[in-house]
Structures are given as structure tokens and as C-alpha cells.
Amino acid sequence: MIVINDLTRLPPDDTGPLDSNCSCEVCMRYTRAYIHSLANNKMQAASTLLSLHNVAYMQQLTLGMREAIREQRFPAFVRAFMAVVHPDGCYPTWLVDALEYAGIPLRSSAATQVGSAGDGQA
Hints:
Mean pLDDT: 83
Distance between the termini: 20 Å
Number of strands: 0
Radius of gyration: 17 Å
Number of helices: 5
Number of domains: 2
Largest sheet: none
Shape: elongated
Helix content: 40-55%
Strand content: under 5%
């Protein structure tokens, strides 16, 4: 599942679901093209549908986190999640630092970090 935060990036002719890995009502019932057309016409329904999808995403993410904590595999969960969010392995320095402080190293100490501590860029 993915969080969508920019309606303008939705393809205007894509008849696929918002997120093919999501089973929320929005992804099951509406296409990217439909949501794009709503956004293009400045219809509030586009933002509402996007918010509903993002809430479902956060619920699934939180559920996965809880299960990982319960099963004592949270560091592995975080690493797997970060590999999906940053498939190129270019993590913002602030993120690497925060996770290391929490005892969850994302990479070996020999790897080069990208971005400055406060830029949030990968």
C-alpha cells in the first residue's frame, strides 16, 4: 500500500485502482482516472477519497507495526518498510540518525548517507 498525497500526479487515463496492493473501498471502487478527473474539476470528493485511502493505509501500517512489536521483529519490519519507501537505499540522514538512536540501524557504517540532517531529502 502507498500513501497518495499529490492528486496532480495521478495519470488521467489510468483505469487501474489507486493502489493495486490495497483493499480499501476507494481502491476497490474507483480508478486513478476517475479520481484524477475529480481533482481536475476541483471536486472535493477527490480529496475525500484520497483521505479515506490514506486512513486505510495508516491503519494497515499500524496493524503491521503492532504485530511486529508483539512478535519481537520490529527492527526487521522497519527495515523492510524503508526498503519499500526508499528502494534505492538513499535514506535521509535525519532518518538514519533517528533510527540508529532507537537501535534500528538501516545500513552498515561503511555506507554513505545522503542528505543533511534537516533536509528530509533522499
